[in-house]
Design a protein that fits this description.
It is built from three helices and two strands. By secondary structure, the chain is mostly helical. A two-stranded antiparallel ribbon has the order 1-2. The longest helix has 17 residues. The radius of gyration is 32 Å and the shape is elongated.
Length: 96
């Protein structure tokens, strides 16, 4: 693609015409909207308003279930599993 001709640029080049490659023009215009960075790390402050709190997991119950599964005596009742899956699907669709 041929370069794009841009007219005079200020008092230092009153009659001069300079050529700019199209991809360079896009890169420079994209960077112009961003504030100048001084090289320092940005100062980010996290809000406690969005903190979900501790996870709603009963660690003791998880340990009991994990031990029962390892020992092979955790009861899996297909009808209860199916009911729980249907209920979870309904909750996801209702948005609650």
């Amino acid at each position: 693609m041929p370069p794009i001709e841009i007219g005079p640029q200020g008092p230092q080049a009153p009659r001069a015409v300079r050529a700019v490659e199209p991809h360079a023009a896009r890169a420079s215009s994209a960077g112009a909207s961003r504030p100048a960075q001084s090289g320092a790390e940005p100062n980010v402050v996290r809000s406690d308003a969005l903190d979900p709190g501790p996870e709603p997991v009963d660690a003791e119950r998880v340990a009991v279930i994990r031990k029962a599964i390892e020992q092979g005596n955790y009861p899996v009742i297909p009808m209860r599993v199916a009911d729980a899956m249907i209920a979870a699907g309904l909750l996801l669709r209702s948005g609650k």
